[in-house]
Amino acid sequence: MSNVIVRPVATDDREAWATLYRGYRDFYNKPHNPEVYVTVWEWLMDPTHQTRALVAELDGSLVGLGHFRNFARPIDGAHGIYLDDLFTSPEARGSGAGSAILNRLAEIARDEGASLVRWITADDNTTARSVYDRLAKQTAWVTYDLAPAE
Fold it and tell me: Domain N-acetyltransferase: where (predicted)?
């Protein structure tokens, strides 16, 4: 993991970020809508937008990404960091890039006074879950999605 550098995404990272983001969307069988790429990239480049990104760099190439944002936790009178997306390129799996991003998020949580870093993953995402189980505690919460009213 010592060769992995985790840093905020930068303007010059657009193409490499898009390649990683495409891989992430492929993993979850999401279609490649160019408008989504443009929208998310604009969010990441807008310092006033809540969504931020870290990238993992290995030997001069981007191999991982993490999109995250703050969220309120009224039950605790605190705020947390929500990790929306975490992806490591298949050829870099096992390099420590995913763990490095999670460790950097834990540092950001500490530095910003957040009470935790939270995320969800697919139940069958066993490769990622082996990393998550090593670094974090699985919760007992069940997740629901409610569609907007028609």
Answer: 4-150
